[in-house]
Amino acid sequence: MVENFSLGAQNVFVLVNFSILTLGVVLGIIFGLLPGISGVNGVALLIPFTFTLDPIAGVLLLTGVYCGSTYGGSITSILFNTPGDPQNAPTCFDGYPMAKRGEAGRALGLAITSSGLGGIFGTVVLITVSPLLAKVALKFSPAEFFALALFGLSVISSMDAKSVRKGMLSGLFGLLLATVGIDAISGTERFTFGSKLLISGFSFIPITVGVFALGEIFDLAHTQQEFARVDRKISADLPKLREILALKWTLVRGMTIGTLIGVLPGVGATTAAFMGYAAEVRFSRHPERLGTGVPEGIAAPESANNAAVGASYVPLLTMGIPGSATTAILIGGLLVHGIVPGPLLFVQQKPFVFSIFVGMFMANLLMIIGGILAVRLFVKVLNIPYAFQAAFVIVLCTIGAFAVRNDIADVWIMLIFGVIGFLMKRYDFPLAPLILGVVLGPIAEFSLRRAMLMLDYNIWALFTRPVSGTLIILSILSLLSPGIRWLIALTRKKAKASVAKSENSTP
Asked: Rounded to an integer, what distance in angstroms lies between the CA atom of residue 146 and that of residue 430?
């Protein structure tokens, strides 16, 4: 093992290869910053440039892009309420409120640290327990995928402390949006009303960019305000050790969830980020504070999505099955160089495999350094007047929405959801449940229908499977938790009133 790592390190620390890895991280952060471009498109764009490179150098470039892009989107999420990459959308929930309070530097520092720790954790897991986790992931059937998605959706009932009804309605609206378009099972059109615009359904990126970015711009225009006022000389304020220790359980939960989600074929970092945030809402002692600008709301999704990056390489390298959309594209990059991922890769291409391990570890360290520098450079945008800032964000959003499918329809969808986001903010409807429904809704529906086909429509069979049954029961309890808490509070209130009455009646 030590000898293999030594060979991997020798390959990575060759000046050319290390420079290419660094370039990949820098480009990844840039791709992550640009709404709609994302790491998936970034990797796809750069694959042709790897044709002339050595296989190790080519894969290091793509790995650096993947790692860097997963962090990069958090910068615009925090400063402009605009997720550069889909997996950074949950960071908006607490990152932007912190920036509005004048804590942008602290929020950016938390994002960098959480991303780095999560990425390193995912890499360590990839190195140590790849075959074991791959076997576990293969045992997940559609029933388990449905139960996992349902468990994530169940947190909707607790995401808005002010009004459970508004939170539930927002989540149900997101689930409704997820049903529009071509049915993945039957191939029939649903809720398209004869419109070609709706045949392909609603893409996640135009909805997210519209609701968050344009919705915020419309709201600021309505109230005649500006983006969060940020010190023009701001830099990422890395958290001190005691602050990291205070967030230790949040980070552990986020990294663990990110790893478990990452090894599941085809799920990816976006789902991991939302599941990490949902878990924080569920296990927090003060869930009502999430969404108001607390460090836990940044640490949870950023540690989860970056841990999922390393974990997504587990099924890729061990079985040749992509763990995410980006690793699906990476398979193409490997095949171009004649490298076939799978069990034999660890036998026939050991130096190559361990070069990836070392390269991913270094990419996460470089991401921390690059993230600090990127913040210092990007905040220069804040030196320009607000009118130009808003125009700059709108242009980026438009390009990003169009780039998803090269379809002007996505730009119209973004504009429509910008108005919807503005109205939701005006009437105090939370945005987080809406986005959670859009992300997890398709996974839940598709997995449930596949499970029903496999189980001959015996719904009780979902409860007899250990993993799915446990998760479904926990989901039901989670959905009922606001009512349970209300009953407990009411019981305590009556008990206190009874005690007070008895004390007053005692002579």
From this structure: 24
Domain that holds residue 352: 2-505
Residue 384 CA to residue 445 CA, distance in Å, equals: 45
The single residue listed with the structure tokens 């860097």 is: 68
* Full-model pTM: 0.74
Q: Mind listing the pLDDT tens digit for each residue in 336-381?
A: 777 877 767 777 777 888 888 888 889 988 888 888 887 777 766 6
Give the burial class of 253: count Cβ atoms within 10 A of its Cβ; 0-12 exposed, 13-18 middle, 19 or more buried: buried
Shortest CA distance to 83 belongs to which of 307, 270, 338? Answer: 270
What are the tokens at 399? 């390009």
Phi then psi for residue 190, to 5 deg, are -130, 130
What type of residue sits at position 31?
F
Kindly tell me the burial class for residue 75, based on how many C-beta atoms sit within 10 Å of its own C-beta (0-12, 13-18, 19 or more): buried
Q: pLDDT (tens digit, 9 = 90+) per residue, 206-245?
A: 888 888 778 878 887 777 665 555 555 566 678 888 888 9
Give dist(CA 166, CA 48) in Å, integer.
Answer: 47
Q: How many domains does the chain have?
A: 1
Comparing CA positions, the residue from 46, 55, 74, 96 lying closest to residue 355 is 55
